[in-house]
Amino acid sequence: MRQWNAEIVEYERMKAYYAEQGQEPPYKSLGAFRREARKPREKQSDVFRSMRSRIAEEKSAQKDLTKKRKKNRIIVETNAEIQIRAECAVDWSVINTKKYQDGIISLTEGKKVLGTAVYKISKTMLEHRQGTKQEDLYLLDARTGTVVYKDITTIVEMGVEKTPELMSLLSQEDEKDFIVVHNHPKNGYPSATDFNTLYENPKIKYGIIVGHKGTIYKYTTPKENSGL
Question: Mean pLDDT, to the nearest integer, of 93-100?
Fold first, then answer.
């Protein structure tokens, strides 16, 4: 049974091969093909041996081409990953400076406790997301700097998600205000989505974005935006 199935496969391959060449196959029925295939090799016709040899060469060439295509695809994917790591690398020579830390404190209205908390969170985010397109988001108590919410598991590129937990916190009717802190892998300015989040959620006093190359942006309303 196994031999029968193998012969059928080979016969179909033979027909396909000759069809691609625009030629009539030398064996026009499975029966004729099987009879020739089951002869001892030395008694098989020259046409049959030549046919099998050409088909084997064609199959081998196709395998080699497939391997090359897969290899080239892997190389392209690897190069793309290298490019992302370079574009989204963190410039620690800027982040690990007193000037950078003082810049964050100045954007938190000079509140050292809050500014220090934002600085530490910024370093945590940048360590976590360095070399990637993903973003982390932290929601802090605007008075104490206490983290009340964080999203550090999103796989969305260049953005964060509004989870039910986050929206629930922002809809609570109390006097607590928040600030939102997140990273921008490519060092970009606040986006339209960033501004809309503030307009839609008045409990957020302002947002701070830390770029992977060392920029810091504070955003509230368009007329009050500032950056370093």
Answer: 94
Residue (of 198, 152, 193, 200) closest to 179 by Cα position: 198
Task: For the sheet with 147-151, list strands across it.
Answer: 147-151, 137-141, 178-184, 204-211, 216-219, 226-227
**C-alpha span between 127 and 129 (Å, rounded):** 6
Contacts of 34 (CB under 8 A, 6+ apart): 7, 11
Q: How far apart are CA 132 and CA 60, in angstroms?
A: 40
Q: Would the pTM count as exceeding 0.85?
A: no
Q: Among 79, 180, 95, which Cα is nearest to 129's? A: 95
Show the tokens assigned to 136.
């982390």
DSSP state at residue 133:
S
Angle at 161 between CA 155 and CA 167, to 5 degrees: 150
